[in-house]
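Re: PRP structure - here you go.
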Amino acid sequence: MQSNNMDYLTIALPKGKLFGLSAELLAKIGYTAEGLSDKSRKLVITNEEKKIKFIVSKTADVPTYVEYGAADIGVIGKDVLLESGKDVYELLDLGFGRCHLMMAVPKAEKRAKLTDYNHTRVATKFPHIAEQFFNRHGMQMEYIKLNGSIELGPIVGLSESIVDIVETGTTLKENDLEEIVSIQEATARLIANRVSFKMKFDRIHTMVSDLRKILESEAAK
Ligand code: PRP
């Protein structure tokens, strides 16, 4: 479905941690709109002059809006993109939002090796990535899908371990958990709908090269 107007470029931004840095980066190439905020209750914010529409959506839904063409472009973490399995173009690594997906367990109950956790329960927001990881290690796990505060799982006896993202390590530390294996590095990515990429090629191409110039000049500092 390609419901958005050809005159506009529609960009889906995730609420939460990535929103501020995404909006800041886009502003550097002139992609702004008055009142653009993830706190606003207004969900579509338009810049009429530049013909840009911003959609502010729940993080996990960004790949869905882009896959179906409700948004031409999106900004999303590689972790959420992989988990979604959505069929979109990944155009650019934006570099910010760096984190990694890993498996962690309560320090006090740490087992000697990874396979000692075979046939145990793992709490996670990323069951697909987790399953692929454990399958590669020949392990069969029970996946318990949680939507937040994953670290609580092993603390209250819901699971033996978690698969979750770590940024600073503070949450693990404060809950006496220890990372035992890293699974996947992640940063924010610019993604595009496959049809939009062809239909709005010039505009998207210009946007990507403008962003690339900004990222390169920042990296050189
Ligand atoms: C994420 C993640 C960890 C935490 C890691 O949760 O699920 O809980 O951040 O960050 P840290 O290593 O800097 O402590 P988020 O804040 O997105 O909220 P959630 O627990 O509700 O998913």
